[in-house]
Amino acid sequence: MTYETLEPISPAEAKEMYLNARKHEVSQSTLDGYHYRLKHFIRWCENVEGLDNMNDLTGRKLQQFKTWRRDDGDLKPITLEGNLDALRVFIRWCESIDAVTEGLHDKIVMPALKKHDEQANGILDGDDADELLPYLRRFKYASRPHVILEILWQTGMRLGALKSIDVDDYDGENKSLLLEHRPDMGTPLKNGEEGERLVALTAETCRVIDDWIDHHRHDVTDDYGREPILTTENGRMQASSIRDAVYFVTRPCFYDADCPVGRDPNECEATDYGHYSKCPPNVSPHDIRRGSITHHLSEDVPEKVVSDRMNVGMDVLDKHYDKRSEQVKMEQRRGYLEDS
């Protein structure tokens, strides 16, 4: 498609036509996400560039928009990526209606994300957990991903600790899990014997574990004759499989939440098996640990109790795991002062 054969259309009209075309294909929340992310592009076209015809959009102008959007409010790289990802899908659709030149969407250069941009501050926050866990309890009750999420969120334990648990380590009557350092049998704890401890559970988590064991756990042993809590048909569930399960269920589109970066689940590569980790907003098991610790602290659980329960030093807890805002910390201190 050459410039001479394009059909004129304003950016705002193209956006409304795009949203109207998608409204019967996606949920309203997803549609709202598209609107939110594309409105910045429309604002740039109308108020900055003075571009009133999509036919005039070029790769150079798209680069100018990227620079403007990056500097507009000092966006984080992951947010900028989400905006550009939504724009690229929109531009590709515009190609199909002869609004822009063919292949223009490929000229959008995505930001190169460093590892810390993607994951260093990753966290399953309380609001997301409040959406995900009820969804699992209703629609995936006592499934493998459900029992993984329940244990991780409530205990904040590390992935290696979760993998190490045997059926005999679980005491439903006393509502506890025993964590033991067993390096000679393939399940070491990160802090060795210093990481050994009893972890208290709620009655609700115990019900999920009981039903998992009774109805869904594969009745198998590992290479050492032990009976793991988390199993596949072949034995003890490996760390990579646990991680994949977490990536799978913490994708917002899995539990019917709006995609924070505006991706279309029908076109997103992170919906394909083996690519779940490519979903920008989902989280790893360690991010759940970070979120669990922050949640416990936000609920006024004393730092020493959290430190002992999660097996993390007070200095490390404060530096790497406590993601409470300064406002939340201040209000919690205020509560202690007003109660005294």
TrEMBL record:
Residues covered by the Tyr recombinase domain: 119-334
Pinpoint the Core-binding (CB) domain residues: 9-95
Keyword annotations for this protein?
Answer: DNA integration, DNA recombination, DNA-binding
Pfam families according to UniProt: Phage_int_SAM_1 (PF02899), Phage_integrase (PF00589)
Molecular-function GO term, any one:
DNA binding
This protein's source sits in the domain of life called Archaea
Query: Which biological process annotations from GO are given for this protein?
Result: DNA integration; DNA recombination
Question: Which PANTHER family does the record cross-reference, listed alphabetically?
Answer: INTEGRASE_RECOMBINASE PROTEIN MJ0367-RELATED, PHAGE INTEGRASE-RELATED
Please give the name of this protein.
Site-specific recombinase XerD
Annotated source species: Haloplanus vescus
